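assembly run, all chains below
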Amino acid sequence: MTIPSKFELPQGTLDLLILRVVAQGPIHGYAIAQRMQMISKEALQVQQGSLYPALHRLENKNFLVAEWGPTETGREAKFYRLTERGHTQLKTETESWERLTGVVAMILEHPLGEPS
Amino acid sequence: MGLFRRIISLGRRSRLEREAEAELREHMAMCIDDNIAQGMSRAEAERDARRRFGNPRVMRERVSAEDAALGLESLWHDLRSALRVFIKSPGFAFVVVATLALGIGANTAIFEILDAVRLQTLPVANPNQLAELRIIGGIHGFGITDSAFSNFTIPMWQAIKDHHEPFSGIFAWRTSPVRVGSPDQSRNVYGLEVSGDFFNTLGVVPFQGRLIEPQDLTSCEISRVVASYSFWKSQMGGQPITPATTIMAEGKAVQVLGVTPPSFLGLVVGDRFDLAYPTCTPPNPRREVFTYSVMGRLKDGWTLQRASQYFEAFSPGLFDETAPDGYPAQTIKAYKAFRLGANTAGAGVSTLRDQYNASLEILLAITGLVLLIACANLANLLLARASVKRREVAIRMSLGASRGRLLRQILLESALLAATGAFLGAALAQPLSRTLVSSLDTTDNTIHLTITPDWRVLIFAGAVGIATCLLFGTLPALRSSGAEPLTALKSGARGVVGNRERFSVQRAMVITQIAVSMVLLAGALLFVRSYRNLLTLNAGMRESGVLSGGFYFPSERIKPENLGVFKNQIVDEVRAIPGIDNAAAATNTPLSGSTWGHGVDVGNLDGQSRFTYVSPSFFGTLDIPLLSGRNFTDRDTNDSPLVVIVNQSFVRRYIGTASPIGIRVHVRSEPQYPERTYEIVGVVPDTKYSDLREEPQVQSFVPIAQLPVTAQGPGTGMLIASRDPAAAEQAVRQVMQARHPGMQIQFADFQRGILDHLVGDRMMARLAGFFGLLAALLVVVGLHGVLSYFLSQRRSEIGIRIALGASRGRVVASMLGNACVMLAAGLAIGAVLTVFASRGAGTLLFGLKPWDPPTLLAAAALLAVVTVVASLIPSLRAAHVNPIDSLRAE
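ok done. output:
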């Protein structure tokens, strides 16, 4: 069963998106997924199954640090923050993503049948 | 850094897991809350959350998988899988670990002993400044010598102590037993007689109280002593020393001045002392009795050489002044020609060093070879294993395992083996060296060595073992990881790729092993045979069931001229005791290591002869037959003609073919022994005199009642033959106590005393034998491993051959042929090596030449048998290869 409006993220993109979302301030995992869904206007349904391993990975790479704290609804949750390294990583990843999409767009937008 | 963090994180694992679980739980709860807020029923909300989050366990595993991908968890995982591998093949792991442990442990142990005996300096201040004075070239049997370290007479010491320009301090010392305890329950302890500056010059600081100082040299009766730390601890309860502290010594209470520090055991390596006491100057010291060792501390700016020159220049005056009387002019001339020399003494003095140096060096070489074989064996085992693993590696790589990861695992396996082996080896070293040292203990001599763990050797031996493991455990893996998985998989266990080369490495290893084992086995056989030769040697006299004893009777107060007759009387009393076969008095116990001799003139020949003064029952007691002439009788005394019985060597040396009976033997004078002429009345065969190894000695026997009156003392050595020595000892003590109260009696087992002289040979035989067998065993393991590998490589080839009609006999023959080629090469190299190596053992062997063809042949034969047995099993397995099975495996 496939839902056309939802698609698979290219490999490695999820990490970038998480870093971007976390960059806005401390946030817990569930909220990260919620926020991505919201910003993408429900186009991106983040798989919980990929989110947690990714968070764990980013934490181990020292891009994120986490701390337990109370949520607005009074539950305990692990809040993630960007580290110095995380900020740098976000910057370089964003740049390379922009370059990549730029290049991809350049090629895709090139009119068909026209020699370069 | 990364690795460090990983190792730390290992312990965090379960905590992390719990945390991940808690996080998920909370998030699921949030999800359910949201769902309910959006209007779902509770059950619906939960179902939706479960759908979104999936199985919590699966999630947790995915998180862990992240860890694994980062290499966090894998070290521990690899370690566990390596352990699993060893648990699955315990034989392999055991052989590797045991081989390494023994190789490393034995090497370290032997080196530690060698170091303690030879290299360690005395625990005193600046030991390198210490020098010992000795007469250059020794004294050639002049006079009477107390012990191996008795280089000077008392008059000599008195002359030297005032003339020691090169030394800032000088002292004399000797070892001599001290009787401690109350008179009825006294026992001997190790005494150390020292001159006033002994402790000052050495720079030994008292542990308690004070040590002996020059003002303590007062009388010749022991009045004050210094205790060693161990004696103070064990015998004096470690109580603080006060001016009132005394101990019973030599029958009276003497003051204990202080205690020496625990590290100070005296100056004799391997020895210790219990009580030190001051020297004294008797009114008329004997000028021919060598008593003291003299040492000094070199002043700054003086070298040994300059000091030697000084003492050499001082020598003529010294020896002129101290020459004893009562010797022929010729002997005195030789005495006056003695010269002093200074020798290094920083490592103390030692008979152990001379006695066991060669043995220890050979043992070190042997253990070195064992380590070499062990490493060759390891290399082989690991290589064989690597080839088995090759297929596994290929499969895992094709399944996506990273090269680095695989390498790490294989490296870890090797390292784990090596580390375990090295660790056990280190643990083994100390007990091994202790056992070894205590195996050299004799009935009345215990060796005290400070064996310190020697990290240099341990690290060296450990590094060799570990390097072997890593090299041979990892290199093949490296190569297979470089190979295309597909090629490796295709060739599989059948090995087409590069195995010829590796197999030739293995063959070289086996050949090395056989060659080195041949050296070790030949060495083992040499030492075992040499020891056997000594044990079975016919000393020419009765050895078993004989007690050797010392009887002292100063309290009987017998006039010297009657002592000879009294000794014969005691002998008769002992002989009359029921259960005793025979008994004899003798001034020297055969094969005890001590000697006594006089200069003799027979006809116009002059020279030396050993002299023993014995009761008439001596030859009967020791079952020495009389070849011609008559035995002594009780009527042979100082009042009758002087008679002597000589041995065959005496006859050969001084008489030749003429009849010896009636020939006169002129004995030269020396202090207490006036010039005399004896008449030969009998001849006995050659018997061993002081040591089993010696060539037959020229010996003379004189009736004990004809011992010069001036030389008679209130004591005698005794030899008592009986069927039950323990009962005899009891009976003799009882009878003597009743008849001669106050007589002191000591007993020892004659045969045990002889065997005690062979402890060095016994050690060599045992250790060389042990290592020889170990080497042979390692050959079995190595060969079996290689042939099994060979078989696994050629299984399909053999299958095809059998399918094409080759007989199983031929298959076995070809496998065995392979082994025999290696055997022949190994033996040839080994024989050459043995001939070179065994030269070093020459002086240690008895009744054998190091180049002993039967021994070499036996070693070769033994190895051949071992080789064939080791190869038979894989060969027979080859013969039973089922062609269908092996071909189907293609």
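Chain B touches chain A through 25 residues (CB under 8 Å).

Residues 128-344 of chain B form one domain.

not gonna interpret more than that til we talk
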